[in-house]
Amino acid sequence: MQNLIENLKEYLDPVNDGQLRSVLDELSAAEIAEIWDNFSNEESLRIFALIQQDKRSDLISELHIYEQEHLIRELSEGITKTLLNGMEPDNLVDLIQSVSPELRSAVWEQLSEETRRETTFLLRFDEDDAAGIMTPRYAAILGGITVAQALKFIRKTMDEMETIYYLYVVDKLKRLNGVVSLKDILRANDSDRIEDIMIRKVIYVHDDTDQEESARVLENHGLLALPVVDRFNRLLGIITFDDVIDVIREEQTEDIYKMGAMGGNTNSYLETSSWGLVKKRIPWLIILLVAGTITTNVLHLYQDLLLAAAFLTLFIPVITQTGGNSGTQSSTLMIRGLATGELHFRDIGKVMLKEIIVGLFLGITTGVVILTRAYFTPPGIEFLPAIAIAISLCSVVIFATVLGAFVPMLIHKIGFDPTVAAGPLMSTVIDVCGLTIFFEVSKRILTL
Amino acid sequence: MQNLIENLKEYLDPVNDGQLRSVLDELSAAEIAEIWDNFSNEESLRIFALIQQDKRSDLISELHIYEQEHLIRELSEGITKTLLNGMEPDNLVDLIQSVSPELRSAVWEQLSEETRRETTFLLRFDEDDAAGIMTPRYAAILGGITVAQALKFIRKTMDEMETIYYLYVVDKLKRLNGVVSLKDILRANDSDRIEDIMIRKVIYVHDDTDQEESARVLENHGLLALPVVDRFNRLLGIITFDDVIDVIREEQTEDIYKMGAMGGNTNSYLETSSWGLVKKRIPWLIILLVAGTITTNVLHLYQDLLLAAAFLTLFIPVITQTGGNSGTQSSTLMIRGLATGELHFRDIGKVMLKEIIVGLFLGITTGVVILTRAYFTPPGIEFLPAIAIAISLCSVVIFATVLGAFVPMLIHKIGFDPTVAAGPLMSTVIDVCGLTIFFEVSKRILTL
Fold this sequence. Notes:
mainly alpha; MgtE N-terminal fold; CBS-domain; Tetracycline Repressor, domain 2; 3 domains; three-stranded mixed β-sheet; 65% helix; elongated; magnesium ion transmembrane transporter activity (chains A, B)
């Protein structure tokens, strides 16, 4: 890729427009978008001018919002007009929703009557619902026509459709009655009527179905496209498999953010203002901080013990951190298993048994490691204290491993998303409980 | 879904075979697989018997390995034969690679000559490579034939193909020369020759291309299927969009495991033995423990300070935890941005500036919170000490926020996967540095 960028940079010399063009012709819109931010504003305008007409609208859909805004501002009105009206309607809606208000009206003015109608229709829906990712460019036919007529219809309209591999069969009120794949059509005879060969049990979603759930439906049925209907069963649009891949990627980002103790949207980092980042990060940071201050009280409670056995203080961070890590490992496994539908609350017996065995092993191993480290290396503590530390750590790890598995299952059972319970929140809970276990176990071993 | 399971359970009474069958007929193989483990071994055999023949092979592909083994063991030989030979070749290969050795030979004996040949071919490849997820059931034609001949060929062979929407054009040595979509074929005239209408610049991957990279290629080009060729450009098979969705889901699990400080495979939790789980968890747990013990030395170094100002001890866990959280937030944002290709090392200036601003804000806010908490609520410390704690926490959070962003970018730059640097490893590094900052700042404010 680095090579490609260098090649392009080299050809940006005016004499090489031809070569630049031929390199660009080889690349898909998505590939050009991926390297787009390697070029200066001026360079990117030069490149844009050399890209084939029909690839430009796809390219702009793939760019970040500030790059989109730059292009719209800088390009001549004629070019923007073709560009915007050539975009897939769902991508155009995304763009309109993201650009700054003053640019929005400029964009709107350049849309054709037809595009405006499509856009207005799509803007009615929530962007997180099934309808928010659908395209109205589906192929719909009436059930009464013949296979030959359907084929003729496909041939005539295919350039406007997002996919022609599924034809949706509707009645005069646009209610979805069936579906027929291009495969079924090729298999049938020219004179067969569509309603005799169509599948009547259509897999569909409603306009307000959550987009992640819609993604699962398409995925579970291995479909190329999924129809979206309103509550009167009228066909509104279709979701295609590439939209579903986008949804899965976004879901992935969301989950990773939650594990990193962040909420809110999954907008791109560079596009989010510093204030936006703060808003995303501060709520969990404060919640965890306040919860974490309980450790202050725990330590206060054991102040006498800490005075009597000062070496215990040295191990506070390593005990809490290791407890947190082992708890996070368990909760991560649970969260993932619950999310993919592999684990259910009824598996809790099996899970607990497994985690106890795993916890025992992890506890003993980490105990041996800390014993060796504490006894043999600086600062070096005596044998009995080292044993106390080792047994405490072992207990904390066993406890954390089991708790880390139990809590997400419980949270999921009562109907919440367990992802927030993983990572940071789990570490905080384990800090509090772990310190108590640490001090109680040490106290007994050291008979203080 | 719970409803569905209850319905099925109710119909499992022998008199209701008819109703059970009609419920099952409505469900896709994936949907049945999702609820499969709600039924006892005996129940699941009864249900299996009522499922339509052509859905059975899809169902078994979707099940967990222990459920697959159970079915293969319990079903009559005749049924297993049809079942196994009816599976998609790539799914069959996955099954053969997962079942226990003694069952493997039983499975092998029931395969037809044709299936064996296909399976042997696929078993040659690494399961993590492009070839590991491809199917050999693609539609290939010679460039010299006409559109009419191609259509006739599609009609004749479509039931054996995974997709007929792309036809791959090969020469006599099976070298990939072009591709033509069914759409292009419908657009063309019957007498046109395929090689005149085909696209010659085919997007393809090699058999040893990483499967995640192959997924990106299909995704970036919005393709339904992606051809896989060997180093002589001979067509070996195709990867379809549903395989790509599986790869993305698996990638998602892998990333989440890494953030939870676990390595190794992403096999299902229930299918992994306790020993397997230990192997997955122990390496990082020990590495982090050993790295974390550096905090012992830091604390030892500041023992005199801790004696002089004992209240500092009370805040050790909350300082390290909050530092860890803010660092993890930054590193999570970086890791995700680097993974999706939005961020690059050259953005480091912009990123650092942003993180410094964000860090300042987060630091001041958390400082105010801890000041309030420490001064006004039990155990309650005096004002100057509380100020010292607040300013220390503020410094630690600023430091952690900036470091948390810097380290993943650096690790990515030198060519490693930054995911391991997020979460746990970041927390450990921040523990060590954070404690030092905490003590140094407090020492100065308290003039000790």
